[in-house]
Write a structure and sequence with these properties.
Length: 159
């Protein structure tokens, strides 16, 4: 029989969760586009993106990289869980200061001379005060495809 304490603890842990997807077309071949979703190379096309690498200590895109990103809502610890750009698979998990966890999965496939990028965001609040933040971020995630496409395509065009 479950104790009352564990039942209450379980009920108290029910938190907000969102799952949002977007996709876009990058105007370049997959061999050039896919590596741009590494934490280090993303600096080339995403304004304001400035990860601080923990491992490897020298900024380098590779499987298992660990880094932090600081912003107005605190510091998030990111872990790369899959980095296979040649096969079109990139995934990151991050936790923002005991507030929210996020799983980002990218599926990257060739489309003629362009590259199709499908992105999914899975966010979960880690405390009651973060429930509205998860809902707010879900709204932003829904609209992110156009922003990502504009930024990466501007970079690809300018290089």
């Amino acid at each position: 029989m479950e104790s009352k304490a564990s039942v209450c603890a379980h009920a108290a842990c029910e938190r907000a969760h969102s799952e949002r997807n977007f996709e876009f077309l990058a105007e370049g071949p997959m061999s050039e586009v896919a590596p741009l979703f590494g934490a280090h190379k993303e600096r080339l096309w995403a304004p304001g993106w400035d990860p601080c690498f923990i491992w490897p200590a020298r900024a380098e895109d590779r499987p298992g990289m660990v880094f932090t990103v600081s912003g107005q809502h605190g510091t998030a610890v990111w872990v790369n869980t899959r980095f296979e750009p040649q096969d079109g698979h990139v995934q990151y998990a991050y936790v923002l200061e005991n507030t929210m966890s996020t799983l980002i999965t990218l599926l990257i496939t060739p489309r003629g001379e362009c590259t199709h990028v499908a992105v999914s965001y899975r966010r979960t609040a880690l405390k009651p005060q973060a429930d509205p933040w998860v809902a707010h971020m879900a709204e932003l995630d829904t609209k992110a495809g156009d922003e990502w496409a504009a930024q990466i395509n501007a970079y690809l065009k300018a290089r």
